[in-house]
Amino acid sequence: MARRRPAAIHGVLAIDKPAGMTSRAVVNAVARGLGERRVGHCGTLDPMATGVLVIGVGEATSAMQWLMVAPKAYQAELQFGAETDTDDADGTPTQLAPTPVLTAESLAAALPVGPITLQQVPPAVSALQRDGVRDYERARRGELIVRPPRPVFLRSAEVLAVDAAAGTATVRVEVGAGFYVRALARDLGRSLGSAAHLKALRRVQGSGSDVDACWPLATWQALSDEAKQATLQPLATALAPVLAICEVEPQVARALRRGQRPEVAAWPVLLDGPTPALAVLADGEAVAVVEAEVLPTGGVRLRTLRGFGVGAQAAPADKDRERTDDTEAAPDDGALEDGGSALAEVGAAPTGTGDPCVAMCDAPAVDDAFAGAAHVPAVSP
């Protein structure tokens, strides 16, 4: 089998996903538009949902796991009076109830007050897996799905609007990984003595990007090839909201890219424990995501978690470090599942692969983040 040609284009693209498309379809469209094989997204949005969908191209796909930890914010419209089997408007009603008397005050009183860790029961139809089978596949077979509550984090929640006549309300929530906005809608309905489901969802912030700065997909597709490439953010720019940026000397960069553990005299990012940081060269080129270990001698040893090289595959992490390549996707907010990243390796069948929660997708064959950012001076051995 011929060896695949490495990606030639690298960077991060923030798309405003339109309603009616799957996240994978958006990834396929970007792969076609750029003519690249290695393309992936950072946090699934269901077809009904719109808003921020951050896409990595080339070596940026290897950094999706750090972008995924950045805060996500959603604007959600809730419909009271009915629950559905999917907890959203795409499902079949399973329970009807009188619409409660809705006011901004009553809804605000029912909303959880953040920051708080909640015990949340995931929707019955989701991409969570058990014994290698996703819940939505079990649901299609008519199986009864019962998931135990699990801890999720809600940073904040606020009421934006209430339409008592229509029985709807709009809320804004900022949440962590694994939080289902659909489940919040369902639970709010029950807490008000009624029933409710998610009518519409828009991600307004995620993976370090705001929706106002995202490219509408149709607008992006209409650009020239050169203009499309110009829309990609450099990896260091995209990771700046979630990782400290530390400049290193060229000899340190070479060692990190080889998977070695170079020692340096000092390292600016040393907190209570190992804290990932992005090592860059003076020109801003991303070298590697690294952790630093303080040595008894007072020096610092750097360890590569994920290396990057222009026009080459990412360098592997240390051999004695536990691999994260085959971990299960961490589900997030949204409809079926929001929060897994997906990698488009063009022309391949769906299967697991390199990065956390990576899935192959079906684009046509073509040739081949909560810590505040800080940029610190170069360090050398």
Give a structural overview.
The protein has 381 residues and is an alpha+beta fold. Among the domains are: 84-196, 2-Layer Sandwich (Pseudouridine synthase); 239-324 and 375-379, PUA domain (Archaeosine Trna-guanine Transglycosylase, Chain: A, domain 4). The chain has helices at residues 23-34, 64-67, 104-110, 135-140, 181-191, 217-221, 225-230, 235-239, 250-257, and strands at 11-17, 38-42, 50-57, 72-80, 82-84, 93-96, 116-120, 129-130, 133-134, 150-163, 168-175, 196-206, 209-210, 215-216, 244-248, 263-264, 277-280, 286-294, 300-307, 341-345, 375-379. The strands form 4 sheets. Strands 1, 2, 3, 4, 7, 10, 11, 12, 13, 14 and 20 form an 11-stranded mixed β-sheet that branches. It has a 6-stranded mixed β-sheet with strand order 16-19-18-17-15-21. A hairpin with a 7-residue loop joins β2 (38-42) and β3 (50-57). The protein is globular. It starts with 10 loop residues before the first strand and ends with a strand. Mean pLDDT is 78; it is low at 311-381.
